[in-house]
Design goal:
About 35% of the residues lie in helices and about 25% in strands. The chain has seven helices and eight strands. It has a five-stranded mixed beta barrel.
Length: about 240
């Protein structure tokens, strides 16, 4: 495969051999790809410094295996500037994509959603809303979209006054006293469905819902960004 100057972002990078770097990339037209940037650690800082997180790029690469070779890179606009908590949230989003997205599956809408999330984190007006909306989009892309409008047993539509719980592999159920699952109100579910109207209560309940569902699909894979957030803040994470 030969790809010329496709819009992309680097999700993760790590040293490889003496002078190269392994890149986990999310591209507009080819989804997640693994690239090796040969000799990049020997180049001048102005060249190697381009391959950074949150920098819009135009990347070219070639190869036939799962690990392909980066052949060219250009900036595709200014980098997103994520500071303090926003930077940790960006690491969380990137880690989710690396651990949940298969290689080579294209979804331009998710590429747009990622750009939208970076914009939200740069503005830092409400990082928690930015995370929840991106998590929802990511789960939908993976085929794990949350079915929130109806109870699974009865097919009844949700109501704002009723409380529910969600099971990742079955769906939405009416909550009963003594249930081991986290409770979420129909009102909070409606906020998530609409993507607006959030308040402190609904964000707390939606965060618990998303954490449970994502944990299920991670199948035991730890999230290092979440651990880092806890270590730095010694409090409940933003994720």
């Amino acid at each position: 495969m030969n790809v010329d100057f496709n819009p992309a972002f680097i999700l993760h990078q790590r040293p490889y051999r003496e002078s190269s770097v392994l890149l986990d990339v999310y591209s507009q037209d080819h989804g997640r790809v693994s690239l090796v940037a040969k000799g990049v650690r020997q180049k001048k800082r102005s060249q190697s410094g381009l391959l950074q997180l949150y920098q819009p790029l135009l990347l070219s690469w070639f190869g036939r295996s799962e690990l392909q070779v980066l052949s060219a890179a250009e900036a595709d606009g200014p980098a997103y500037l994520l500071q303090a908590e926003s930077a940790l949230c960006g690491l969380y989003i990137n880690e989710l994509m690396v651990k949940l997205l298969p290689l080579g599956e294209t979804e331009p809408e998710l590429f747009i959603a990622y750009q939208r999330a970076l914009t939200g984190l740069q503005l830092a007006e409400n990082n928690e809303i930015t995370l929840r909306l991106f998590e929802k989009q990511l789960l939908s892309h993976l085929g794990y979209g949350l079915v929130l409008e109806q109870e699974v047993e009865t097919g009844d539509n949700i109501t704002a006054e009723q409380d529910y719980y969600y099971v990742a592999d079955t769906g939405l159920h009416r909550w009963q006293a003594g249930n081991k699952y986290n409770r979420i109100s129909g009102r909070s579910l409606q906020h998530l469905i609409d993507g607006q109207g959030f308040d402190r209560t609904s964000l707390k309940e939606i965060k618990q819902l998303m954490r449970m569902v994502i944990h299920f699909y991670l199948a035991g894979k730890p999230l290092h960004s979440r651990t880092l957030f806890n270590q730095l803040h010694n409090t409940t994470t933003q994720h």
